[in-house]
Amino acid sequence: MVRKYNVVVVGLGIIGSASLWRLSHSSSNVLGIDAGAPINLSGSSHGASRIFRQAYWEGEAYLPLLSLSGDLWRELENTCDRRLIVETGGLFVGPVASGVVRQSVETARRGNIKHKVLSDTEITRSFPAFQVQAGMEAVYEAGAFTIAADDSKCHMLNVAVRQGAELRFGASVVSIVRSSKGLTLRLSDGVLIHANRVVLATGLGMSTDLISDLSGLIQPKSVPVYWFKPKLNNDRNFARGFPAFLYQLPDGRLLYGTPHIGSEESGIKIGFHNHQQSIFEPEIHRQAVEESCIDEVSACVEQVFPGLNSTPYAHRKCIYTMSCDGSFIVGESVHFPGVFYASACSGHGFKFATGLGDTLAKAALSGVLDESVAIFSAKRFIESSPLYL
């Protein structure tokens, strides 16, 4: 018997899980499908922690979606008996004229985001774990927080199931076609599923030929991330009060990090946001992080955090699904009306998942994508040459 659903969500990373969570509030006839497991180590959404910040150096255009997302993260936590949000604050450090400092301040002012600008001496006095060079400044956003990533995604799925949604793991969608039933999805095991509308949130899978809308517009990258432990008698500086952070080095390399928030990952998580990126190749991605990369990040950690052991105790590779301009791509398929998608979160999309999920859910139920995400349309690339052809 072929089942028909109101909406099918394909891909249950954080964007797909958030979409299913929001859909389940309005419709019980929804299905979520993922080729992997609930915690999928081959995607971009796994891990213990992510940063949420609104003094967004990437630009004020993100503010409306950030505001919605922040409200929905707190709504999600209010339905959970576990802590999903840790109020760590966010510290964004860089040279005085750097983009991280200047543009974070600009966005905070335009968005009326509570913040403080700290001098180099004020940084070290308030946050003694940091060693900063003369001439550095920081923006401190007290309202920034750290998200318990895996726990949040699992809770979204749990809530969706309690509200009537169905889940199917271990099966991939191999084709989508239009039919008299609406949209027909064929799964890897041969099962056919009919849907009125589809939400597509397959991350790096968006670069395949399931739909061709994003062909040449996205490029998966393999990016290492590391964990460091405090030196003996230095735990205090990295415990309560240690913030989520961005740290732009004088040469432009941008470190990010999150504190230990009581999850399965101990120590301080640190990585480069705009550096140490290589084209994603499955076989190479499964290999250990290169020693040269470990040496490079260790040298930076020794410089910025003298209280940490500079050799990481753990490391692994994650995936950034990058767009040509480093922003998101959200839209409705030109070739398959009724298929709504979000991809190419470009390494900074997790914090937006609740807002994007809500937007995609409303589009799938109404058939109309809200104009608030028009700035993320693939149409912006029509007059430019994509980087990833």
UniProtKB/TrEMBL annotation:
The keyword Amino-acid biosynthesis does not apply. Gene3D superfamilies: D-Amino Acid Oxidase, subunit A, domain 2 (3.30.9.10), FAD/NAD(P)-binding domain (3.50.50.60). Its cofactor is FAD. Residues 7-362 form the FAD dependent oxidoreductase domain. The keyword Magnesium does not apply. GO terms for molecular function: flavin adenine dinucleotide binding; sarcosine oxidase activity. Keywords: FAD, Flavoprotein, Oxidoreductase. SUPFAM superfamilies: FAD-linked reductases, C-terminal domain, FAD/NAD(P)-binding domain. NCBIfam families: PRK11259.1. This is N-methyl-L-tryptophan oxidase. It comes from Pseudomonas prosekii. The lineage of its organism: Bacteria, Pseudomonadati, Pseudomonadota, Gammaproteobacteria, Pseudomonadales.
